[in-house]
Amino acid sequence: MSIESRLADLGVTLPGAPAPAANYVPFVQSGSLVYVSGQISMDANGPVKGRLGDDMDVADGAAAARLCAISLLAQLKAACGGDIDRLVRVVKLTGFVNSTPDFTDQPKVINGASDFLVEALGPAGQHSRSAVSAASLPLGVAVEIEGIFEIA
Q1: Positive or negative, the Cα torsion across 115, 61, 95, 42?
Q2: Are 144 and 99 in contact (CB under 8 A)?
Q3: What CATH number labels 3-10+23-151?
Q4: Is 2 exposed, middle or buried (0-12, 13-18, 19+ CB in 10 A)?
Q5: 31-53, pLDDT tens digit by residue?
Q6: Do 29 and 80 form a contact (C-beta atoms < 8 A)?
Q7: Can you give the residue ranges of the Endoribonuclease L-PSP/chorismate mutase-like domain (predicted)?
Q8: pLDDT band at residue 18, thresholds of 50, 70 and 90?
Q9: How high is the pLDDT of residue 19?
Q10: Contact assessment for residue 97 and residue 109, using Cβ atoms and an 8 Å cutoff
């Protein structure tokens, strides 16, 4: 089954790849690796803003992280010339969580992205990962995640 078919089974249609917001490129390919720039939590209404430990709970943060994972896949699809089935595996995610100094559940927030990728991609979605706190993120978003992917 194709990746887009599995995503459709989950009720997910990949959006167009978001354009960069500053002086950088959305992805870089080096050999069989694609490095995707940080994707912020965005939905159809725009940036998903909030601060974990303040005005957002872990479930809301995990939902924001899932949105980041969907944007990562959209960028990967663009990097693959529209053929996301070239994906071999997710190698690594680095997740940044806009959170208060005493908030310590960053891994649970980034699980929103990790769980989604494993659900959508099976074993190819398993990856190494970092989940860190940030005092603030661009546009006040709750989560930003960057990723490294292996492609054929």
Answers
A1: positive
A2: no
A3: 3.30.1330.40
A4: exposed
A5: 999 999 999 999 999 999 999 99
A6: no
A7: 4-140
A8: confident
A9: 86
A10: yes
